[in-house]
Amino acid sequence: MEKMSRVTTALSSNTISGRTMFCHLDAPANAISVCRDAAQVVVAGRNIFKIYALEEEQFVEKLNLRVGRKPSLNFSCADVMWHQMEENLLATAATNGAVVTWNLGKPSRNKQEQLFTEHKRTVNKVCFHPTEAYMLLSGSQDGFMKCFDLRKKESVSTFSGQSESVRDVQFSMKDYFTFAASFENGNVQLWDIRRPDRYERMFTAHTGPVFCCDWHPDDRGWLATGGRDKMVKVWDMTTNRAKEIYCVQTIASVARVKWRPERKHHLATCSMMVDHNIYVWDIRRPFIPFATFEEHKDVTTGIVWRHQHDPQFLLSGSKDSTLYQHMFKDATRPVDKANPEGLCFGLFGDLAFAAKESLISGDANRKPYPGGDRRYPIFFFKKADPTEQFAHVSSALSVFGTDLDSNRMDWFVKTAQLYLLSGKPFAELCDHNAKVARELKRPQVSTTWTMLRIMFSDPANLIAPGLNLSLGKLGTLPLMNSFSMKEMGTGIGTESRLERSKGESRQDNIHLEPGNILINNNNEENEETEGSEAEYMFGDAELDDDDLYSMEHENQTEEQEYTLPQEAFPLRHEIMDNPSAPEHLQQDKADSPHVSGNEAEVTCLTPIESFSLISISQPLFSPHLPASFFCPIVREMLSYYAEQGDVQMAVSVLIVLGDRIRKEIDDLTQEHWYMSYIDLLQRFELWNVSNEVIKLSTCSAITCLNQTSTTLHINCSNCKRPMNNKGWICDRCHQCASVCAVCHHVVKGLFVWCQGCSHGGHLEHIMNWLKSSAHCPAGCGHLCEYT
């Protein structure tokens, strides 16, 4: 081997300084490794193989080891390691099964030195011996581990784990001849490099593949392992059998685990999927991370502490094509955000509360628990340890009993049994359900049903029975209806005298019947149709615009078209050839107390003299709001009930409203509501209601629930043989199998069948029989039981 030399000079000082920083890579990284003096880091991946210098403020690219126009698969790396004794020696595990060593001291561009191609499948891990310069260990997907002497051109030892693929291999930091290997079948093996024929020890560490392992740098007996079961376990290997001494539960599969330097109980982990963060755990507190680094946007593939004696700098590479240096002081501390108290309800309503004992005993105003509600006081004490990082804490757990009557669910059962969800018109369903809720002392739910009926009922149903005109028709009228007195002929003025005073209410004098036509265009005499009794009197002034609008809004059920003759000036002469008015109109005019002597005379204008225009305004929009206007409000209302735990109301309204609201709520939310309600119904054994809800549902995932497990295998009550056909006639004895054992008639409804003796009958008959006798009514002697 050629004499190795440094590519760059070492740091001028033994102290390491820097900050949290990152750099963008050309491709995703699969693994990283740092040199002995912590001045440089190598990044390896499928399409990247570079060395970066760690400067004060940034990463600086120093060398690209992928050379040549078409780099071979030897440059595609699954793992990389920098030798901690020889500062210019690297080793990589290639995806094509090759193990490659690299000499950074070579003067040529290609730094590749040796190539070992003994593995048949991908090499997952390479590891240098911590003190031996020329010893290299590899673990492959083919299930073999090989030990290479770099002074030779082939491996010197081959270790067969007699198992599935090897995921990690690590030399012991304290024991010269020992290395550990982790396998995909959940086992961990310890080997002596002097005995390649058989492992020294094997134990099952995880329930799934073991992806990584790492020896403790200070305690020679501690081995940390991580697997797909989302656990990190610490094993004491000094005993005859491997002993699990710590276990950390994470939230994702553990891909890498590295002990933190100078901290006995700290280790760092990262996941191979789902979770992108890096966690530093204190194994004495296994349920919450000690520190978290959240900078990466994709899966973290490699982590390494920058220096073996410095716990403040952590390097990481990721599939997001970034290389990070993390300062430990910049890490997030989840424990600072954790809730120091715990609160939980039990199955029967008991409430458990856990908190620091100092918080409970230190409250002088705290009243004692009445009636012995505080039960099972449990105290947890920790012995004070001056070297322990965590504060001395004592906790107290209190359990409070509750009155069972306060948590009764009778209202739920009665509501489910009494609600109507289909079979009647929408308005009747709402009224019935509102009445049910009102009788069960649930006024808010009752009011909600009433409001739903008002919002979504047909507007014609909301008008009084005596009025035949729908409010919705007003929206179809033109904005302005204008009439010219010239077009009305000469006969209309006789009956259209306005006799209403200005101070009198207009509503009392408007009697227009719907369906009447004010002007008959087919009649040359233009007589007013029978039933039109509009009589007005403006008094001394003309009717202004405000009065017109006011009149329009106060009389929503008036005739669509009518005229208001304008007679604010004296008449010149009478028109004697006009037809007489109807008798009932003349009688009303004579009896009116507001009509003077002159005004009682039948007078009218000539067509030429009445050239004026009267305009009647209509509303700009329909007074009735469409049903779609209320959909957002109803959607929020349903979400509110579901969040409050009343999923029964949410599902019931969803079924009753049907297509009116279904499109406003996404399918996943509907399915969640349905499943929650069905689960509650089945817990209370409301099977019929549950089946009705399933049938009325429109979610495909819900409707298929009662289509599964519908086959019932029964025996014939006569010959006791299994029924093979689909009917109720046995194909062997040709007798009806559904005959009631009590009344001996064929059962056409609910049929109760005993699995012990195969006899059965009507539900009511069997229940009444078993009240007085425990034996089968068929006389077979079997002790039937109905539950």
Automatic annotation (TrEMBL):
It catalyses: S-ubiquitinyl-[E2 ubiquitin-conjugating enzyme]-L-cysteine + [acceptor protein]-L-lysine = [E2 ubiquitin-conjugating enzyme]-L-cysteine + N(6)-ubiquitinyl-[acceptor protein]-L-lysine. SMART domains: WD40. It comes from the Eukaryota. Its EC number is 2.3.2.27. The keyword Membrane applies. The keyword ATP-binding does not apply. GO terms for cellular component: cytosol; GATOR2 complex; lysosomal membrane. One of its GO terms (molecular function) is zinc ion binding. Keywords: Autophagy, Lysosome, Membrane, Metal-binding, Repeat, Transferase, Ubl conjugation pathway, WD repeat, Zinc, Zinc-finger. GO terms for biological process: autophagy; cellular response to amino acid starvation; positive regulation of macroautophagy; positive regulation of TORC1 signaling. It is an enzyme of class 2 (transferase). It is found in: Lysosome membrane. Pathway: Protein modification; protein ubiquitination. Residues 578-597 are annotated as: Disordered. Its main location: membrane. WD repeats lie at residues 116-158, 203-245. Catalytic component of the GATOR2 complex, a multiprotein complex that acts as an activator of the amino acid-sensing branch of the mTORC1 signaling pathway. The GATOR2 complex indirectly activates mTORC1 through the inhibition of the GATOR1 subcomplex. GATOR2 probably acts as an E3 ubiquitin-protein ligase toward GATOR1. In the presence of abundant amino acids, the GATOR2 complex mediates ubiquitination of the NPRL2 core component of the GATOR1 complex, leading to GATOR1 inactivation. In the absence of amino acids, GATOR2 is inhibited, activating the GATOR1 complex. Belongs to the WD repeat WDR24 family. This is GATOR2 complex protein WDR24. It comes from Solea senegalensis (Senegalese sole).
